Amino acid sequence: AERRMAERLRGTLGPLGLEAHAFKVGWYNAVLQPAFHLPYPDDTLAFVVLSTPSMFDKALKPFVNKERLKIIRDPVDQCVSHHLSRVKEKFPDQRVDIMFDYEMLPSRKPKFLAQTAAHVAGAAYYYQRKDVKLDPWGRKKIFGVCIHPKYGGWFAIRGLLLFPDIQVPFLEQPAPVDCVSTEEKRIELLEQFNFHWQDGRYRDIIEVKERYSEEQKAYFATPPGERFRLLGLSQEAQ
């Protein structure tokens, strides 16, 4: 079942510059405290959805051109939510639950921990402080970051698709590619991500196959309220 679903998802999401990676809810819940668990049985099939650099041209621009008057919040969030909701139509006989990266619970906790989901699905390696043996940061708080084997840091985790009626007890867990494998590189990555993230150098910690275009970089560097203008959307739309 998982293979068929994965194929169908790839066919739908691939042309939009989105990737889907399968995982079992149990893999995710096993590495987190109960407060963060997804409320499904361990063998439930789920997919984590990532946007790659080509999403900007393949999905965002066409979406904005078509829906320009209906865009009332962040265009990227709305574009992704539009396309993931359409995935539901591809599985008319299945229950499909969708969680987006920007959704919060009433407690202000995110609905799911995106980087953990990407790691357990084998999509991208989540480098954390515990992956560094001789830690130079003392008492500072150090946030972890996911690196994709093909796109480095030039990607984003956008959501989860959960199939509550599909149980996959035999799904094999793929390990994410450990592409930042030396201690020095890991320290450099976490340093850059935590203290110099604005310059985006951490994204190029490995040789990447593709990165954001200059136009796309400018778009994401612009405060969300002003992104409308860049896409030729009037402020009224907002």
Gyration radius, to the nearest Å? 18 Å
Largest β-sheet summary:
4 strands, antiparallel
Main sheet: strand order: 1-2-6-3
Structural class of the secondary structure composition?
Answer: alpha+beta
Order of helices and strands: HEHEHHEHEEEHHH
Which percent band covers the strand fraction?
Answer: 15-25%
Percent range for helical residues?
Answer: 25-40%
Task: Return the domain count.
Answer: 1
Q: Total helix count?
A: 8
Let me know the number of strands.
6
* Assembly of the depicted chains: single chain
Q: Tell me the overall shape.
A: globular
Distance between the termini: 42 Å
What is the arithmetic mean of pLDDT? Answer: 92
Organism: Callaeas wilsoni (North Island kokako)
Subcellular location: Cytoplasm
EC number: 1.16.1.6, 2.5.1.151
GO biological process, one term: cobalamin metabolic process
